[in-house]
Structures are given as structure tokens and as C-alpha cells.
Specification:
By secondary structure, this protein is α+β, with helices and mostly antiparallel strands. It has nine helices and 16 strands. It has three domains: 93 residues, Rossmann fold, CATH 3.40.50.20; 63 residues, ATP-grasp fold, A domain (Dna Ligase, domain 1, 2-Layer Sandwich); 82 residues, ATP-grasp fold, B domain (D-amino Acid Aminotransferase, Chain A, domain 1). α2 links the parallel β6 and β7. α1 packs across α9 and α2 runs antiparallel to α3. The relative contact order is 0.16.
């Protein structure tokens, strides 16, 4: 098979591992920077060009679209879909999961457990917004933040008011969520491929920090999931329409709650913690699914 990995940096661990896994299984693979692609929008024969050449005869693409390039990156994915190329995660699903508010609304509509969440753009009724999320302590997030950036724990009502006022001054959309104290600074990253969780790790925040992101000094160990946690992770990925996803869960007193569904989950932390060949599993999934016409949306999103 001829596979393209859409990634801005071939040296990234996840990108490199996917390249190695694909070559080990006998595939022709190329890393393509989506921002350097340019396209012809045509009814009869849409094309994609890259560094002066037309990209043709690809069987599948694996998008590794960073949050900062979602708009153009998903346009490139959509163009491949219009050309009949199979995409592991489709453009519509990537866009859906990147919109935190939209993703939470979709998950809530389908009955997935979530932290109580309030949402606002610019409101002077700060106290009412805080009460919607159950009062302090609570977590306040910028809607566009990633890897723990733009996430603040407000331990008191006064602190929450101050943070919301500051974010409001930035004219940003914000989320306020109940703080799941019983999680004790830990979350579960579940790597979903198709209809099952293939690997899971527990991420524990460092002392004095409530965010468990590995980029922020958190540690990772193998996680043993309950049937309910596995089912929740798989359902969350399916609701987003993602074939490959990192689903972040918290263990609350009322069962697993979903914090986020990530369309380009990093592989380094989970492969290191679990010693599983997740990259190889993704390539195997591509082998089974990549065939002409097996794209649900065909670039319609």
C-alpha cells in the first residue's frame, strides 16, 4: 500500500513510529506537511500538489493534524477524501473533536458521563456561571487550549471570579467545569482503535499540580480499566466519528467522566507505559479498512 502521513514534523515520536511500523509491514510511506500542500478545487478531477508534484495513487492517509492548523489541515484531509483516498480519521470527525463545546454537547446528548460544565463568551453574571458548574473549586479553561495550556484550577469562589474576569478581558470563549476531587490529580488515557481500547495508561500529576499532562511533568503507568471505562471510551470515540482516538477519562464518584477526545493522540507516553506497539496496530487497522469508497463522508463535511 501507498500511505501518506500528514504531519508537520517527521522527527516527532508519533510520526516516526508510524513510518517505521508501515515500512516494517512492507508499505510505501511518506510524511507530508499539510501546510505545504496546495489544491485544485474541481468537479471532475480534484488534485493535491506538494513541492511541485501532484500526489497520486495513495491508498490511505493518516492525519496527524495539530490543533494550530486544524482549519487548513482538515481542508487537505477533505481533499484526499474527495479523491477517494481512505483517511484513518475523517475531516468531519477531526473538526468535531477539536471544537470542545461541540464535542461536549454531542457527548452529553448521547448520555456520556461528563463533568458538570458551564460555557460563556462574555458575561457579567460571573457568580451565576460559577453556580452552574456547582461552585468552587472548579476548573476554568480557554476553549482553544491544548496540553494543559489555558487551564486553571480556582479553589475558591473569589479566585474563580478573578480568573473568569481575566479570561473575559481576552474576549475568549471559556468553559467552567466541576473539579473532580476524588480523581486525585490522575486521569486515564484510553487509546481506541476501531471498536476497542487497545492500550490504556494512568497519568498522575506531579505534586502541587492538578493537570496530569505528561508535558507538564506528569507520570504514566499501565491502567487496568473497568468494563464501564472501556465502554465509555469506545462510545465517546464513535460519537465523535473517530477510528483512532485518545479518550481522556476521570474516575468520579458517579462513574467515568470524559474530559476530552483527541483525534491525534501522542504515542510516546502510551507505548512507553504499556510496552505495546500501538503504531503497528494503527497500520494493521489501515490495512483492513483502506479501500476505495470506504470513506463515510467523501469530503462532504
Amino acid at each position: 500500500m501507498k500511505i501518506a502521513i500528514l504531519s508537520r514534523n517527521p522527527e516527532l515520536y508519533s510520526t516516526h513510529r508510524l513510518v517505521v511500523a508501515a515500512k516494517e509491514r512492507g508499505h510505501e510511506v511518506r510524511v507530508i506537511d499539510p501546510l505545504l500542500c496546495y489544491m485544485t478545487i474541481a468537479t471532475q478531477r480534484p488534485t493535491i500538489h506538494y513541492k511541485g508534484e501532484e500526489l497520486v495513487d495513495y491508498n490511505a492517509i493518516i492525519p496527524r493534524i495539530g490543533a494550530s492548523i486544524t482549519f487548513y489541515g482538515t481542508a487537505v484531509v477533505r481533499q484526499f477524501e474527495m479523491m477517494g483516498v481512505y483517511s484513518v480519521n475523517e475531516s468531519v470527525a477531526i473538526s468535531r473533536s477539536r471544537d470542545k463545546l461541540r464535542s461536549l454537547q454531542l457527548l452529553a446528548r448521547k448520555g456520556i458521563g461528563l463533568p458538570v460544565t458551564g460555557f460563556a463568551h462574555s458575561t457579567k453574571y460571573t457568580n451565576d456561571l460559577i453556580s452552574l458548574a456547582g461552585g468552587a473549586p472548579l476548573v476554568i479553561k480557554l476553549l482553544e487550549g491544548t496540553q494543559g495550556v489555558g487551564v486553571v484550577l480556582a479553589e475558591t469562589g473569589k479566585a474563580a471570579e478573578s480568573v473568569i474576569e481575566a479570561f473575559r478581558g481576552l474576549k475568549e470563549n471559556i468553559l467552567v467545569q466541576e473539579f473532580i476531587k476524588e480523581a486525585q490529580g490522575a486521569d486515564l488515557r484510553c487509546l481506541v482503535i476501531g471498536d476497542k481500547v487497545v492500550a490504556a495508561m494512568k497519568r498522575q500529576s506531579k505534586e502541587g499540580e492538578f493537570r496530569s499532562n505528561l508535558h507538564r511533568g506528569g507520570s504514566a503507568t499501565v491502567a487496568r480499566l473497568t468494563p464501564s471505562e472501556r465502554a465509555t471510551a469506545v462510545r465517546a470515540a464513535k460519537i465523535m466519528g473517530l477510528n483512532v482516538a485518545g479518550v481522556d477519562l476521570l474516575r468520579s464518584n458517579h462513574g467515568p467522566v470524559v474530559m476530552e477526545v483527541n483525534s491525534s493522540p501522542g504515542l510516546e507516553g502510551i507505548e512507553t507505559a504499556t510496552e505495546k506497539d500501538v503504531a503497528g496496530m494503527i497500520i494493521q487497522f489501515v490495512e483492513k479498512q483502506a479501500r476505495p469508497g470506504n470513506t463515510r463522508t467523501r469530503g462532504k463535511g
